[in-house]
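Anyone? Bumping this.
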Amino acid sequence: MRQYVRPVGELHDVPVRDFVVPAPPSNISTPKKRKCEARQYEDRLYIKKPPNAFMLYLKEQRPKVMAELNITGSAAINAVVGKRWRSLSKDQQAKYFDQAETESCRHATEHPDWSTKENYGKKRKRTRNRTSSTASASEPKQEAQQAKRLCVTPAQTQPSSSYSVVKEPLKQPQRQPTVTNLPHQQSACVQLQNTQTTADAPVCQVNPVLPASHMDFSASASLASSAPVQLQKQAPFVSDTNEALLSVVEQLDPLLTSEQFQQPSSPLIGPQLSQTSLASPVYCALSTLYASPDTFFKNQKEPIGFADIQHDMWPILPVTPQPDTLSCSNTPKYSPISPVSLENSSPSKLLDSFVAPTECQPMSPVFSETAKYMMSLLNDLEPGPFAQHLQPSSPQAGWSSPESDQSCRPPNHSFLQTLY
DNA sequence: ACGCCTTTGAAGTGA
DNA sequence: TCACTTCAAAGGCGT
């Protein structure tokens, strides 16, 4: 496999280069069923939708049902699985919603500019007719609509920048970096609470994690859900990864383990704070890294693309972004509303204080300090690579870590090694 | 060769 | 806002 080396930043004034493996996304289309789409987009990659919870369940259950019932027809299998799905409890289903959120987050990281809109109308005629043979009068209209969609001009279905990377020089997305212009899927992730929400300073939104509709259902499974204590108690399915990650965040933010969070129904401040903390850019970025480190680092595109993918990643990377790798467009930047004293602030307060400025600004030193502290925690969990690159960073006053939770295991992933 | 079937959920579309 | 449509997976079947 070919690899390319490109500079990604500097470390202690020493240029750092990174291998870029131009591996195609894992969710490209199969040529068989995408001929129509392929006609329009030639050999451009077709990025599929991330699977939803039921699709993940379906994938898992299909071989079981096939073995149990000795049937092979997918339609029959799907009907059986659908029935089983409906018989599952909310808690049982939550496992798959959790996985779906992870997949969605990973997908959004790999394809930051992609939305389901890209695939809309790309399949051939497909008239969903639940009433079987009854040909409705609206069918011609539907067909006409679909034909219209199928015949859209390339200009109407301008591929996003993530597509363009495949064959063309990287282009700047045409959208302006206003949050309101972000695709809905991207904006679904995180909204930092307690931030200014003026017209000039929209609510910060960072990498996608989950649709809001899940936040009331899959609280235990959502990274950005409410009640972090619930997340620990009622989510035996939470992976080792998330568990370890949670332990880091809990250490990062002592508030998460304070007594007020032991009661899910207690004060309003609980969900608010927990959502902010668990949905923080750092946590979100870390979860992305943990979820798919190889993909994340291998699928880096041009520097500007990398910055676009995850500006929030820079603070936790052991490199300093070069000025020309920072993009002023399409990526919310974070800076403190007002100078925050490290001595008197917990990380959660710091994260709360970030808003998206109206123009490109340099990395917030406060944010970087937060990230450094997180790195030190990560280093404790998995000693190694970062120790030689980061100055030891002891917790500031007010950042005192709680007693480490014995149930929180260190991450099994060796993603840190992939950095070097 | 490729659309249909069949399921649920997420998201897009149009009124 | 609401109803409707499309697409994710998958493999046998029909055209």
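Late reply, but here is one note on the structure posted above: The first strand of chain A starts at residue 4 and ends at 11.
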